Structures are given as C-alpha cells and as structure tokens.
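Shipment paperwork, digital attachment
Item: protein structure file
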Amino acid sequence: MSQELARKTIWAAALAAVLIVLAVFVGLPFLASTQLVRDRIAQQLTAWSGYRVTIDEAPDIHVWPTFRAVLRDVRFQDWNGEREPILEAEDIEIDLSALAALQGNVVFTRLRLVRPVLRIHNAPLPPSSSPQRWGRLARSVQAARAALAESPKDPDLSALPSDTLGEIELVDGRILYQTGDSWVDFVTSLSGELDWPALNRPANLTAQGIWQGESVSVRANSAQPLLLVAGGTAPLALSVDAAPANASFRGTASLAGDGLIDGEISVSAPSVNRMVEWLLGLRFSGGRIGPFTLSGRIAGNGRRIKLGASTLGVYASSGRGTLELGLEQNRPTLIGTLAFDTLNLQSLVQTLNPLNRVRSDSTGPLPLRNVDFDLRFSAASATYGPISLSKVALSAKASEQLSTFDITDASGFGGTFQIGLRADTSGERPVLVLRLNGSGVALGELAEIFGRRHLVPQGKADFSVYLKGTGTSLRNLAATAQGEASATFGAGALQGVNLKDLLSDSGPSGFSALTADTEGSVSLDGASLKATVKNGVAEITAAEISAGDYRVTMQGLVPLAGRALALSATATDGRERANFFIGGSWEAPFITRPLHLQ
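Attachment content:
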C-alpha cells in the first residue's frame, strides 16, 4: 500500500469516528427528543409492569458518561384510575442502551427510583387491571408456570424467557399499607438494589430500611428466581439482620400454594424480650430473658413446619431436639422435645407459666397465650436462681382452656422433687391447682439458701402438698385454696429452740419471740405434720416433734395468704407438761411462755 493510500485510509477512518461521535452526541439527543420522550419510555415501563405509566414532564437526556434519561413524577396506576397509584417516584433515572436507541428501540440497562412510594392495597386488583394478565413480567411468570406444569420436578429451563431486566435501585423509598381509608408506613428509608441481568438468570437482592422502628438489612439470592416466583422449587439464600434479631436461611423454597421450605435456618437475638417486643409489640411482665439462639434443619410449608436436629439456646441453656409448628387450625400448635446439658428453669417458667394464660392484661410474656403447645424438656443439670438441681424432666402443655407445667422429676438437696401447676379457664373463674411432692429432701439446706435457718428441721423430709383454688395468681390460689398437706422429717436438728427452757417456769410471763440469732439447736429424732386446707386456711390437725425425752404436739390455724399463726402447743419431757400459744407471723412468731434461746 502506497503512503498516499494509507494516508487516505487513516483520514477515512478518522472521519468515520467523527461521524460516529457526532451520531452519538447529536443523534442520541435528537432521538431522545423525538422517540424516547414520554411515550416510548412509558410504553416500555407499561409493557414490563402491566400498569398504566404516566410521566408529568419530558425527560432530561444525558449522553455522557452514559446514555441516561431522568423522568420526573412517574406514576404506575390501575387502568381504571380509581385507586391511588400502586407505585410512584419523584425521579426515575434510566440507563439506556445507546446502540438500541440509534436503532429506534428502548432497552433499559439500569433503573434508579428516587424516593419511590409503593402502596399495598387491602383489596385485590380487578382482573381487567391486574398486571398478571399481560405485563411482560406477568407473561414471563406464566411461561415459567407452563414449564413447571409439563415437568414439575425437572422443568425445561431453556423454555424460560430471557428478557433483559438489568439492575433496579431504590433510594429512600417507602412502603405503605392500607388500614381503613388511611395509609400507614410499613417500611421507611428503603434503599437497595436488585441485580437481575435476565429473567432466566440468577438474581441478587440487597436492601436496607426501617421497620418497626429498627434498621433492617436484607440479602437474598436465587439461582432461578423466575421459577421461585412462578411457584416452582428453587434454591434460595436469605438473611435478615437487625439489632433486635438476626436470621438466615439457605436451602430450597417454593411460593406455590402453602409454600415450601427445606434447608438450614439460624436465628439469634441478644434478648428474647426485645425480639418479641419488636416483632409482636408485646412486653414481658417478668425479668429479662436472653440471649436467644436457634439453628437447625427446617422443612415444611405454610401449614406445618418442622425443625429437626435443632439447637436452642436461651441464656446459658443450650439444648438439642425437634420442634414442630402446626398452622392448620385457628390456633397454632407447637410440639417439641429438647434435651439440655444445663437449663435455666427461671427463664423457662417465665415463658411457659400457666398463669400467663389466665391474666387479663396484655403484657403477658409471650403470644403463647394464643398458641397450643406440648413441650417436653430434660436436663442433666438445671438452676432456678440460687437453687441447683440435676436429672430434671419436665413438660409444659396448653390448649385453649387448659395449661399445665409439670416438673415430673428432679434431684436436689439429697432427694427428689415433683412440682406441678395447672390452670383451667373453662369456667367463670380460672381454677388453679398446685402440687408439690418431695422425697428425702434436706429442707433445712433449701431454706438456708433463702436466709432461713430457725424453726426449719435440719434433716431429710418427705412432703406432699395439694392446693386447688381460683384466681389469676398464686396469691389468689393461697387465699381461696382447698386441699391438704403432710410432711415427715427424719433425724436432724431444730435451730434456735431449747425444749428444756421451754418447760421451765423461770422467766417473766407474757409474749416472747420464738426465734433469735443463736447457734443453739435441739437434736430431733423425727417430726410429722398433717393439715387440711379450707378457703385458704390450713388447719393443722396433727403435728408432732420428738427429741429424746421431749415431745411437742401442735394444732391450730395458719392462713396461707396472710402468713399468720394461731397455734396451740403442748410440750412434755415425760415428767412435766406445759401448754403454749404460738402467734404472730411466719417471719416473726411469738410464744406466750418465756422461751430462752441458747
């Protein structure tokens, strides 16, 4: 090639480049001003969404650094125009394909919605205006459903539409829901991005917003999002992060019918109280419970969900087992079995206490008042405040009118316990039943934990208590109780009493305190007590203490709610005999004979 020909070729190429640049910088604005103004962009937005799209102003066109149209005051409305816009935005910035524009077409590569408002109506869309009928997204969903209908388990992925969608970004958006004639904020300060290059390709979603007063971040991705939307089963990874709680799921899901999930789930919260208050607007009436963790294999649908091989942690308690949630009936049902190495009984009682279901106030500890459950727990060791137990087995059950909490077996203080509380709301007033049983229990050691040493026999004891009353609290139960109680004590000691001085005639007459700060005690051979309870008053029908040559018998009345004493006692050493009256209260009893304490 001659130099002259090469020079002409270079000039021709340069001229072509200049013409291309001129076409881009001059032709694009011209095309934008003639073909892309309102109508073509509105047509494409309508074609995708199925809604009628209106744009108040002509778009601003920017050629550099990207070919972009900025739309003002855009509204997506039903075709009958009777409702508020489904979606509206102050601005929508649309990145367009320059090559497609030169050919007279509109192809979106990116949409940025600035301060959009999405409205969720409480009534269904009329069929004539529904985007499910003819919008490109709706038609793509229908195509995916057709592929699923032909082969539900292995649909033909090549039959899925491949329309280019690109990226959709939200900036400072709001989601409103309708309540009556008013619109209420559901999510505010919503920003995020949906990256869905084509309808038959994977999609990723990231979003942040404020829900229920807390900042929430959501991340989701699926390899076949179109199948998922169409009701098929597709992979799904989802995570939700907020200060009150975090949750994540990874597995497969379906949105058809009652839905379907199968995968691994993880939930954590720094405080059960804060999580429940945030999610459900309910406050605990007791103390703080938390932190909380839950993880395991989840499988099920909108009617029944099962957590298998799950790990549940509350406070310092961590257990493994299965949980199953049923939603077929009006009242949800929760069934589960969990085994713990260590268990915080106080937190569990706070949550599953039958008294929670009979209180009329709305500040009960959990929405479990409206949930039926049958839960069984076991623990190698357990604590209730300062009390330590081992080999614990318990169950908690509840239906609409009956709830129970039973520690069916527990070892501690040298013996075994059984404790049960039942609440029945089938009548006009709630009926409460309390059962306490113990065998070989060192009651003195138990009492000392609560700072009580005097007048509590230091030895092994067997006891049984049955109380039935009405009301919504243990105090109500004590005030109305009917029942019986009995106890037998083995050899031991009784702190703060000297039976020899009790029989002595020395000292002034009148009232004397029955207890004092002393290390003195009397050795016991044994003791027994029987009482019947009527209308909240325990009548001690037989009580006896044996200590060597000494024998003390008592009978009288003890109001359970008032914690008062009205007892007559007789003490003898086989030679002398004396009668006494014991009054005052459980905390500060007095006696009508002088009592000298060692």
